[in-house]
Design a protein that fits this description.
6% strand; mainly alpha; Serine Threonine Protein Phosphatase 5, Tetratricopeptide repeat; 658 residues; single chain; 24 helices; five-stranded mixed beta sheet; disordered N terminus
Length: 658
């Protein structure tokens, strides 16, 4: 059963319209003026390139362009819009967690907006996007909360389209949580908005689906046919795919599996042509169940349902995963395979638990925020009462003791000076304490690093020494003996051949031992896994919060071994410098493998430094030396008090592939 999710066909340029659309109105209201600065307008023009690439389905180029702009943009408007575009990029690729991350980044940067109407638009759009992400992950509780916040923000701005779009998506969630009365109320309200055909026939489709859930198939088909008529007029294949799957569901519920099979097949054909992932999964789910129930083709049913399950897992569709495990359980029971049925039932409950845990964690976080807010409000109220009491007490003393007012003022001044002195001493003591703690922490970190480096260096030197000794001493001696045997003329050839054979074997064994002692860091483990373990060890051994992002991870694991080793040593050197000098709390490592380059970005929120005064120590010299081997480049972006961004690019050609 499919609920219509307001088609992916929506143009991405609408996103920028939300933020910048009031520019024209401001100019018309007061010619020659604008609510945006020149820098903001220039950044808006730069975003047009990324929007064009997204609308042209050149997603990877758009992603590269947006990441480039994110490093250079300075204004809150530009940074906010780039984050929203990155969120849409990840939504389009069904990467819900990444999409949610960039929406939250947009909300943070949007706090810098000075125009209240633009800020309301940003909040409305961002909450709508968060609701979509949570809903796609099956986290309907949080999705409802986000949509309701979005409605409140859109009502402040009086943005009609955005209000109806959020109402439509909130109604989808109500429908999926079986709150059908609320869902019907919302969808029927959306029928009043005639300006958006997609929103209109999407509402017709979903109303038809709800009546189908309520077993009123005649009313359901009536609304579905209205939707089909509109889709035909608009030539919308997305809508047609959804309608076909909904009609298939109706027939399946009525027991006409043969008609249902035909409609599911047609729905999948249309969905595959436009890559409508949810219809692809639900259509195959329906066909799999029909194969088992109607045609007793249990193997075929399991194969189709398993393929659909793999897609649902890939796209992180938790609700669809739960449904598919239910269907696989039914098929196993039909063929009396109780062992598989039990396993699928366990997986179904596991998915359900995951959905419940996600909602519970979010509720706990919300309760913590509310509790802290209440505490602050109480503290503020107590402070206000204290100030009022102090004021009353002072007035009473002034009225009663007029003759001693001069003495009172002197005493107050002396007391104030004394308190200031105590306060200054307390602040000085606290600063000295903090400095001492930082010094101790820094010394401990430095000592830990030295121990780790010494351990690693000692092991590698010992192995290299043994390998060198075997290769240079024993190997050389055996080679010399072999040469001497070759010069013997009077020995029996069979005996000499036997000795030479044993010497060759011994020599080969020495070579194998010497080479095997050379460390191979990535021979048995994926590159990204090694990096993740290293980063996790740093996280556990220090106060740093670390994060690793690699995209695409599978291709990065396949790059040339030399690049892996050099890159790992460079990253070790950079993180060591952060631990020694940056005094950072957070560090983020990002790996991007593009068509022509391997990009490494290391960012920290430490103290930063003046790049003009950057000294070329041993560490920096080693990094440059390693990059020279790979024809790579090295760029540092840092300022005192702002943190540091290290950007490394290594050219990537076919010769670099594993």
């Amino acid at each position: 059963m499919v609920l219509f999710k307001n088609m992916q066909k929506i143009i991405f340029s609408t996103l920028i319209a939300f933020i910048f659309v009031t520019l024209g109105f401001a100019q018309n209201a007061n010619p020659g003026t604008s609510i945006f600065s020149r820098a903001e307008l220039e950044e808006k023009q730069g975003l047009d390139t990324a929007i064009y690439l997204l609308n042209s389905n050149q997603d990877e180029k758009a992603y590269e362009e947006l990441n480039r702009q994110l490093k250079t943009l300075k204004t809150a408007y530009g940074i906010t819009n780039v984050n929203l575009l990155l969120s849409n990029y990840f939504t389009k690729n069904s990467q819900w967690d990444s999409s949610t991350y960039y929406v939250k980044e947009a909300l943070l940067s949007g706090e810098g907006f000075t125009n209240d109407s633009l800020k309301s638009r940003l909040f409305a759009f961002s909450y709508r996007q968060l609701g979509r992400n949570y809903s796609n992950q099956g986290n309907f509780g949080d999705a409802k909360k986000m949509y309701i916040k979005g409605l409140e923000a859109s009502e402040k701005y009086v943005e009609e389209w955005l209000y109806y779009a959020i109402t439509h998506q909130l109604s989808l969630v109500y429908s999926r949580t079986k709150e059908y009365d609320k869902a019907l109320e919302g969808f029927k309200e959306c029928l009043n908005y005639k300006e958006d055909p997609e929103l209109l026939y999407g509402s017709y489709i979903n109303i038809g689906d709800i009546y189908a859930y309520q077993k009123d198939y005649a009313t359901s088909n009536e609304y579905l046919l209205k939707a089909e008529s509109l889709c035909m007029e608009e030539d919308n294949l997305y809508g047609q795919a959804v309608i076909l799957s909904s009609l298939a569901y109706n027939y399946q519920e009525q027991g006409d599996n043969k008609k249902a099979f035909i409609y599911y097949t047609n729905a999948i054909t249309v969905a595959d042509s436009i890559d409508h992932r949810q219809v692809q999964i639900i259509g195959r789910s329906g066909i799999g169940l029909i194969l088992a129930e109607e045609y007793k083709d249990y193997n075929g049913a399991k194969r189709i349902l398993s393929d659909a399950l793999a897609k649902a897992i890939e796209y992180a569709y938790l609700s669809e995963q739960k449904t598919l495990y239910t269907y696989l359980n039914k098929v196993s029971l039909l063929e009396n395979n109780y062992k598989d049925a039990l396993q699928y039932s366990k997986m179904e409950f596991t998915i359900q638990d995951s959905i419940v845990r996600m909602q519970q964690n979010e509720d706990i976080n919300n309760l913590e925020v509310k509790y802290k807010t209440k505490q602050k409000e109480k503290e503020i109220e107590l402070l206000k009462k204290d100030k009022q009491l102090q004021a009353l007490e002072m007035n009473r003393h002034k009225i009663i003791i007029v003759s001693f007012i001069v003495l009172f003022i002197v005493l107050v001044i002396l007391a104030f000076q004394y308190l200031q002195r105590l306060k200054a001493q307390k602040i000085l003591h606290e600063k000295q304490k903090v400095i001492a703690e930082k010094s101790i922490t820094a010394l401990m970190k430095e000592q830990e690093l030295k121990l780790m480096e010494a351990s690693i260096e000692g092991k590698e030197k010992e192995r290299e020494r043994i390998a060198q000794e075997l290769h240079d001493s024993v190997g050389s001696n055996l080679a010399a003996i072999k040469l001497q045997l070759n010069q013997l003329e009077n020995q029996k050839e069979a005996h000499i051949a036997h000795v030479k054979e044993h010497l060759d074997e011994t020599y080969q064994q020495v070579r194998e031992v010497s080479h095997s002692l050379i460390p191979k860091r990535f021979g048995d483990f994926a590159f990204c896994d090694v990096l993740h373990n290293y980063i996790s060890n740093i996280d556990q051994a220090s106060d740093l919060n670390t994060a690793l992002h690699a995209y695409p991870q599978e291709q990065i694991n396949k790059i040339d071994e030399t690049i892996k080793i050099e890159t790992f040593k460079i990253i070790q050197e950079l993180i060591t410098n952060v631990l020694k000098h940056a005094n950072a709390k957070n560090i983020e490592l990002t790996l991007n493998l593009l068509d022509e380059a391997f990009n490494i970005i290391l960012e920290d929120d430490g103290c930063g430094f003046d790049t003009q005064k950057m000294s070329k120590g041993i560490g920096l010299t080693n990094i440059n030396s390693r990059l020279d081997k790979l024809s790579g480049s090295f760029d540092v972006d840092s300022m005192p008090g702002r943190g540091t961004i290290i950007n490394i690019e290594i050219p990537f050609t076919t010769n670099n592939k594993a």
